[in-house]
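Hi team,

As requested, here is the filled-out complex form for the DQA run. I kept the field names the same as last time so the parser does not choke. Let me know if anything looks off before we queue the next batch.

— J.
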Amino acid sequence: MTARILILNGPNLNMLGQREPAIYGHETLQDIEKLCLAATRKNNQTLDFRQSNYEGELVTWIQQEKDKINGLVINAAAYTHTSIAIHDSLKLLTVPVIEVHLSDPQKRENFRHFSYIEPLAAKVFSGLGAQGYIKALDYLSTNL
Ligand code: DQA
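And here is what came back:
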């Protein structure tokens, strides 16, 4: 079976490369998408890779894709720490959700320590940069 994987990226991740490179590195979101595409090809997965700065758009995409995907990888960025709406929409899913962060929020400001995604995630990969996305895809390829 070819598993359909949706990767969602939240606000400000479109600015990777320019955004706080000491924290997030120099890779752009497009670079990360290319790495993910190569990983999904290797894993016999198909990839839908998206980014939005709008909470409601992320919620709508989760609703629309819920019956069409086999797994979701989400870096909800700042919405991780604030969004009950995204938390509620993830409850609609019956497929595994993997939470990814480029940095390790636990080692940063207190307001990043709580995640609304984590209680619904099968696995969390933090602080590994782009490799966290690859680990999430590899995890889904062996745990579906
Ligand atoms: C982030 C961590 C969040 O705290 C932050 O708001 C982001 C990016 C990460 O990938 O490290 O925008 O999700």
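Two things worth flagging: The mean pLDDT is 97. The longest helix spans residues 29-42.

Thanks,
J.
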